[in-house]
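FAQ: What does a multi-protein file look like?

Like this. Sequence, then tokens, then the next protein.
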Amino acid sequence: MDAREFDAEEIIHLITTSDADDVTPPPSSPKPLTSAEKTILRRWINSGAQYESHWAFDPIRTPDVPASQGLNPIDAFITARLAENGLRPAPEADPVTLTRRIT
């Protein structure tokens, strides 16, 4: 089953089956589902659970770097976000302040 497909009956089968080849989590898992957890999952699914993709499973993409005035890409992202929120960067710290911050 594709990770983005949601088949309620299959998921309920996978968490309730006694077949060691199908059950999830597998028998080797240190944390099997309790009866209460299975009941909660069954209720959630039967009440119309919606599958929402997690960002960690999305393909990696390179974002467009915001327009900047010769800044490196990280600074361009920070400057763009500050501008979105009506903020400005703090002034550059003097050498004494920088030394105090790193020590």
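And here is the next protein:
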Amino acid sequence: LVIGAIDPRVTCVVSQVPTISGYASYQRRISPDSIQRMNDMLIADRERVFAGAAPEARNVIPNEDRQPGVYTSPAAVTFLSKPESRPETWDNMVTIRSMERARDYEPAIYIERISPKPLLMVVADQDTVTLTDLALQAYNNALEPKRLVLISGEHWTSYVDQFEKASTVAREWFVEHLMT
């Protein structure tokens, strides 16, 4: 969404289960009583990095030793546990500062700037990762030309159960707008 809005070389945009507001997603995925603890952890990590230490990291999904992960939903763990979902070099780790940067990522502010480039948004109707309601609100704020495709399921389904539909509509969008 951001690149589609700011890069004049982009001809059309396909955004599949997009992050719309890192901050809103963060607020909904973290319990209110954990927000201060998370903020303290981010500050401590920043201070360690400024002092020359390596950034602290967390598991992306829980590991075999039952160490907790950032993503804990059964759907996320199932998807990210499959070897075909990740390259051989994938390390089940994410830095705390990456989590902070994801929290601060706000593509919604660019949505109206995409036009007049054609925008296709593929949104999962039960997405608790990138949040269905935020995606639908962003789509409503986007200017024409635009198209919305709803797929049935949660965030990861666009890569598995609904992959055929999600990839087909994206391909058709690219053919329509890049081949003319």
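Q: Is there any per-entry metadata?
A: Some entries carry free-text notes. For the entry above: The first strand starts at residue 13 and ends at 16.
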